[in-house]
Amino acid sequence: MTQPYVRPDVAAFLAAGRESGAPAINELPVPDARAAIRAMGQALDLPPVALAVVRDLACGSISLRLYDARETRDSGPLILFFHGGGFVFGDLDSHDSFCRFVAQRCDLPVLAVDYRLAPEYPFPAFAQDAEEVARWAAAAPAALGFAPTGIVTCGDSAGGHMAILVAQRLGARPADRPVLAQWAIYPFLGAGNDWPSMRDFSEGYMLTRSAMDWFDGLCGKPEGDERYNLLLGPVPQVPLLIQIAALDPLRDPARHYADRARAAGAKVVQLEAEGMIHGYVNMRTALPSAQQDIENLLATGLALLE
Q: What family does this chain come from, according to its entry (predicted)?
């Protein structure tokens, strides 16, 4: 592989990580790994913006958080957000700053989902929770305080997987209101390791092969289940916005899924963040250039809804 382009802020961040001597996440017990990731997010992301509405609610036993820049609204799209974290870590707080920014920038309500995590709840817990919340939200429950016209599924990494998964599941068996679009940010596709980007970027570029194997082991990686390997699932006729980091081991499966969706006739907009690594949505202080990628993502996503 020729030496890839690396943005200056990304190069500085990676160098600092190498020099820190901190243990890899997958070398820690799960509770310690979760605490380390939580602390890293608090240190590396932008401070949260104030919103008119930040309200915790629930779908059965699944905790949710509603964000809105408006005090009240009658209807319109609802962004349903699933956080990243390898299905092992992350929660409503880990992506709180990002969700607030999305709600403010898009002037749309955002509903974040605190789905069950492995290893306490292995596969298919996350898939079940994602679909359950999507169907609940599509039924316009009174707890939302407004009646959404449809759902925009959104998420990063493992959350990007769930954004696509929900569109697939609700495409096969529709909910009360439609999925209007999918916004998948450097999504995990569950499509195995035999990809050039897995070989080229699985060491030294934030997300490592050993970490991915660790996630798979904790989640209980199933063989041949389309709820995990999304390349086995149906392609919904729902507009897909997919943003890919060029230095991400997950790059090539994401490109392949975008190509597959195009071939199936779906509208696809593919954005690539050149010189960027996996995980940037909640590292915007450490990686200031990522903010422009996020701005581009949201502007493009809003255009898909017009």
A: Belongs to the 'GDXG' lipolytic enzyme family.
- pTM value surpassing 0.90: yes
Residue 153 amino acid letter: T
Nearby residues of 299 by Cβ (< 8 Å), 6 or more positions away? none
| pLDDT per position as a tens digit, 93-132 | 999 999 999 999 999 999 999 999 999 999 999 999 999 9
User: Which amino acid is located at 84 in the chain?
Assistant: G
pLDDT per residue over 117-176, tens digit each? Answer: 999 999 999 999 999 999 999 999 999 999 999 999 999 999 999 999 999 999 999 999
Question: Hey, what are 246's tokens?
Answer: 């060029």
Q: For 232-258, give the secondary structure using H, E and C.
A: HCCCCCCCEEEEEECCCCCHHHHHHHH
* φ, ψ of residue 299 in degrees (nearest 5): -65, -40
Measure the N-to-C terminal CA separation of the chain; round to a whole number of Å.
41
- CA-to-CA dists, residue 158 to 70, 176, 187, angstroms: 29, 25, 6
pLDDT of residue 81: 99
Encoding tokens for residue 55? 């309200």
CATH of 8-304 given 3.40.50.1360, 3.40.50.1820, 3.30.70.260, 3.40.630.30: 3.40.50.1820
Count how many residues are written for the chain: 306
Hey, which residues are catalytic here? 157, 248, 278
Q: Which amino acid is at 133?
A: V
